[in-house]
Amino acid sequence: MLSNSLIELDRAHLIHPVASYRGHEKLGVRVLKSAKGATVTDMTGHQMIDGFAGLWCVNAGYGHESIVEAAAKQMRELPYATGYFSLGSEPAIRLASELADRAPGDLNHIYFTLGGSDAVDSTVRFIRYYYHSLGTPEKDQFISLEQGYHGSSTVGAGLTALPVFHAGFGLPFDWQHKIPSHYAYRNPAGTDPQAIIASSVAVLKAKIEEIGAEHVAAFYVEPIQGSGGVLVPPTGWLKAMHEVCKQYDVLLVADEVITGFGRTGPLFACSDDDVVPDFMTTAKGLTSGYVPMGAVFMSDKVYNTIADGAGAAAIGHGYTYSAHPVSAAVGLEVLRLYENGLLENGVKAGARLMAGLESLKDHPLVGDVRGRGMLAAIELVTDKQKKTPLPAAADPSRRIFDRAWDNGLVIRAFGNGVLGYAPPLCCTESDIDAIIERTRLTLDQTL
Ligand code: PLP
């Protein structure tokens, strides 16, 4: 009864992100009520393993009392402090320092945002400021990858390549350029890692030369493309692309909004690739989704150029909720949990997840299995030889999502027959085994 009235209220008043409004009105909302560990429970009492950690963000898992305590303590003591006027709060300063200590290379300067989109947006503004400070404002063109996702702010949505974020908006992004992704399963260069790297390097060089290196500001990349379908580049790919950036004096922005905070194993995925970008953007796992927060990591070189360029003038970029003390207090506690067993557990659980997904390769629908750590996907096809995608007209993703839900599993069903996995790092062995068993059952029902 309560649930029905909620569905009506939702239909009437709540606008959902990235949804068909009319489609959603018809389907009605599914309301989650509570969660613990890796298990979520809906309003009807139906329990599921959350194989997607909310929206790839609840890395620590649900129900950590110590996180709740950290937030409550901070709210009691000081619920808000601005960072404007050279003011600050202790948790924000401490979190910035802890993050800088753990960041790759000289990414020593942290700018806090409310999430990932405004973190990406902030980098665009900082990069413009950087080149103005250097006296080369004509470096104003940006490159990113097809299948890439970098948020849906007005500027960042341009770096995003997914068509749904552009259709119907008509915003001009003629200063943003896309190059093909590494997408190994469907790469015209074949599946050989070295061929994929060589092809990406050639394409990036050609794009920079086409625009003119003197106009290219930055290259944006997710170390593993998430929303594009969990596309994992070959080892050495990111490093090779970084070399091209250095050769042409182009800044590299590593968007670690999904890959950060243990999702792929280490705290940051760049470390696996031995790459120190000029900027790193993060959010999600930073606070494990308990409260909103994002962070831009900026290198010494960029920070000093901007600071010297501005001199005594204020740099006009900031939000009321930049460096929010409650979010920062949560971030500090989440970081402590990561380093007190969660990262380690995530590595073990990730190996089990990948092995489990590999075991699904014998299923007639499973064309590809890919991932790293607790970030993975399977790609479904109707013909393995020809790699024929599932027929789009039947809306397979929605049906698969619904079946998985009924089977006690939340997954991400991308529109192109790709199923995404990003479970909390706290998953037990039996959680992981349940994810695999419930996936197999769901696939059997889809045949
Ligand atoms: N960048 C990447 C790589 C993302 O995956 C996302 C969100 O999924 C964003 C940016 C945007 O983050 P947010 O949704 O917190 O604004």
From TrEMBL:
Named cofactor requirement(s): pyridoxal 5'-phosphate
GO terms assigned for molecular function: pyridoxal phosphate binding; transaminase activity
Keywords on record: Aminotransferase, Pyridoxal phosphate, Transferase
Domain of life where this protein originates: Bacteria
Family: Belongs to the class-III pyridoxal-phosphate-dependent aminotransferase family.
PANTHER family cross-referenced by the UniProt entry: AMINOTRANSFERASE, AMINOTRANSFERASE CLASS-III
Protein name per Swiss-Prot or TrEMBL: Aminotransferase
Organism: Agrobacterium bohemicum
